[in-house]
Amino acid sequence: MAIKKIFSQLDFFGQCRKYDIPISQCPQFLFLIMGLVIISSSIITYALGTRYIRDPEIALLLVLSITAVLLILAYLISRSFERLAQANRLKSEFISIVSHQLRSPLSNMRWALEILMSGKMGKIEEKQLEYFSILKENSDRMRELVKDLLTVSRIETARLSFKKEMFSLERLIKELISSFEPFSKASNTEISFQAEKDLPMILSDREKIKLVIENLIDNAIRYTKGKGKIEIKLKKKDGNLYFEIKDNGVGIPKGDQKYVFQKFFRSKNASRYQTEGSGLGLYIVKSILEKAKGKIGFRSQEGKGSTFWFILPIK
Ligand code: ADP
Asked: Residue with the nearest Cα to atom 19 of ligand 1?
């Protein structure tokens, strides 16, 4: 049993596949590299030691004890890495199970609610309709969250598909601005759009890029207090398309800026003001843009506003 365990530990590639991480970050592989470094440095130390310590046995003993201590340390470090990698894998599995298992009950709930609200099952009073609308609104929010979790799970297991088709980014942005109009009006926010003349079509996944822009516009509206002004720009830059969205909203505190693209991160100032949100949007946006061979960045000042930008290759 113990021998089998040792052999299974030696199967580096198998172990690394289990954690869904690249081999260069795999604890077992790192341990092997660390071992090789320690052994070669011991040989070098021994060679130097025999030159300067007269008794070769003492030199050997010294080198062996240093090597043993280093190996134990390396083993302890790699064990703790392994535990972290395992916890990470369990978290990804949890996200995957939860999102898959919640999808169908939520769809069924929505379907049943729509039938009830349509009045096909009998006349419903105005007050009842009001409560049904609350139920529908909340089930829609849950569906959005589950959809985001499902996308995250696909990203983490490298199963996020990516199609390539020609489309006009300019037209897509115009369509999205119109679809956001009721929301932006209700939030007292004005959206303007400026596009350079004769922009080329791009070759990318239209649905995924739509998701990216939707998330950025949605954030710009939601994280703006009072009268908001959102400026969107699209232009050509070094053979790519450059998109920019600027808001005069709450901004992101300096100390929080390095975490914005992390899963589930929400800065305190934003969550105090806007309770709705999962902290998954920007993680999804960044992952999609990486898949599209694009880039994303932002500048922000707390209390003044934020500017998010991305570049996408034309082909
Ligand atoms: P969510 O909006 O669901 O919280 P996101 O991943 O889209 O998740 O954003 C992560 C966090 O980044 C937000 O909670 C907020 O703190 C900050 N953020 C994103 N966009 C903006 C913005 N335009 N203005 C201010 N803060 C923002």
From this structure: 219
